[in-house]
Amino acid sequence: MVEVENMLPRMKLSDRITWAFLIWIFFNLLWLRFVEDYIPQWVGAIIATALGAALIIFGPRPVEEIEDEEEKEEK
User: Fold this and answer.
1) Is residue 2, in this structure, part of any structural domain at all?
2) How far apart are CA 9 and CA 3, in angstroms?
3) What angle do CA 70, 8, 53 make, to 5 degrees?
4) Which of these, 4, 10, 24, 34, could form a disulfide with 48 (CB 3.0-4.6 Å)?
């Protein structure tokens, strides 16, 4: 069985912030094109912000950070 963790690229904080910003813009553009007629844009902005924050907080971390966290847990 393939682990999803190994499939995701490792990103630094700056990478996660950049991707969160790009996702925010892309999501809002899609919202404007397909959903705005039914649900207001501010709802899409809130959802896009939540997605971006989730990526920054829970996004894949560099291998070094994971190893450091595991060493702290062992001690």
Assistant:
1) no
2) 13
3) 80
4) 24
